[in-house]
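User: Structure please.
Assistant: Input sequence and predicted structure:
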Amino acid sequence: MSKKVALVTGASSGIGEAAARQLQQAGFVVYGAARRTDRMSGLAAAGVRTLALDVTSETSADKAVAEIIAAEGRIDVLVNNAGYGSYGALEDVPMEEARAQIEVNVFGLARLTRLVLPHMRAQRGGTIVNISSMGGRFATPMGAWYHASKYAVEGLSDALRLEVERFGIDVVLIEPGSVRTDWGAIAAGKLRDTSGDGPYAEQADAMAKSLERSSRPGARMTSPATVIGKAVTTAATARRPRTRYRVGFGARPLILLNRLLPDRTFDALIKRSSGVPA
């Protein structure tokens, strides 16, 4: 039997890059996809096939999947990792930015999933790995649209799992905790631009500092992206993967506390840990 084939979106950095490298080391033929292929030269040098993909474009997504099918004849694993964090007070975030957040984090994921499902059904097997977040189980201040997108990914994945199990297809959610990537710095920049002035400025400044801390090299209370990449590879190679993998700093205890504590008690905990004033 030929090697299994994996497609990883958002592979130019962070979790996507780590997942692509580890899947390749595990023996998969890996296609790493991102909007800019020049940022994946390191992956290409490691033997990962790279291709251009904008998950918000039907044409781009169609072309990427067709290219893989033409070359390999199959896709065994789809890792939906492409996404970003749009932070800002709900009152401040323009609706066009809110729509862009949902378009990338939810519709982009659904678009790629719809394209690979016919091939997985035909081969009677496959694994779809959706990168969610512990932020898909509880919210933090200033992240309404980001959390809305990840809550949606959780619900979409749960429904999809019920639909495709009969075809031998597994649907897996990865719920990372705090991860040491550029994600936090990018989210902090958006937050400062959106709510750095005005009535939410004090909260925005505190939350931005919290997000920025997670992006610093060697930051405490964070995990490297390789930890998440390992979970992706575990799910992709498992005969019967778990439906959820909670990995990375804080994911397990915070999700558990969210389930156990009253809402207002948990709210106070999140505000205190984020440095956001009450």
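The longest helix spans residues 95-122.
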